[in-house]
Amino acid sequence: MIDDKLRTAARATLTEYLKAKRLRKTPERYAILDKVCEMNKHFDIEALYAAIEGDGYHVSRSTIYNTMELLTDCGIVRRHQFGAQPAQYERVSATVNHLHLICQQCGKIKEVKDPELVSFMNSRRYSAFHDSYFCLYVYGICAACTRRNRREAGK
Ligand SMILES: [Zn+2]
Ligand SMILES: [Zn+2]
User: Fold this and answer.
1) Where does the chain cross the membrane (predicted)?
2) Pick from 23, 70, 107, 113: most CB atoms within 10 A?
3) Pairing of strands 77-80, 88-91
4) The predicted structure's pLDDT at residue 29
């Protein structure tokens, strides 16, 4: 489902950015952006490629890579590196106020809200540094893996 307001705002941000950087406003870049606006969870390049192909639209993986670099640079998406997995992206508007719990065993990512911690982090000031944003990753073992480990240990 495309949220129209979100898409319009994202397109405006991209247009400004491309203009400022003197880059071409190619239809592929906007098609990729539209798809990104439909993604509600984290996704990697492969998932985005599959989603775009699923719509019957063809763009190369390298165009997707390059466009995601631009979208990251202009602040529409954020790039995450969770352990050894391929880079994951998510829209900045979807990322505020949650942290990521990452299972070190199966790689599953759970998002949790922690408003107290977020407001604490937002209140922090660091000398000689102007902070833009923060990401919080908590590594550990998920409930499913804990259960599986117990079962296997009990054999
Ligand atoms: Zn997230
Ligand atoms: Zn797990």
Assistant:
1) none
2) 70
3) antiparallel
4) 97
Task: Output the average pLDDT for the chain.
Answer: 91
Looking at per-residue confidence, does 36 or 93 come out higher?
36
Q: Comparing 1-94 with 96-155, is the CATH topology the same?
A: no
pLDDT tens sequence across 38-88 = 988 889 999 999 999 999 999 999 999 999 999 999 999 999 988 788 999
CATH code reported for the domain at 96-155? 3.30.1490.190
Q: Which residues participate in the annotated binding site for Zn(2+)?
A: 103, 106, 142, 145
Cα 148 to ligand 2 centroid, rounded to whole Å: 9
Domain ranges of the chain: 1-94, 96-155
The three-state DSSP-derived secondary structure of 12-46 is HHHHHHHHHCCCCCCHHHHHHHHHHHHCCCCECHH
- Kindly identify the ligand whose nearest atom is closest to the C-alpha of 137: 1
Residue ranges near ligand 1 (ion) with Cβ within 5 Å: 90, 111
Amino acid at 70: L
- Identity at 55, one-letter amino acid code: D
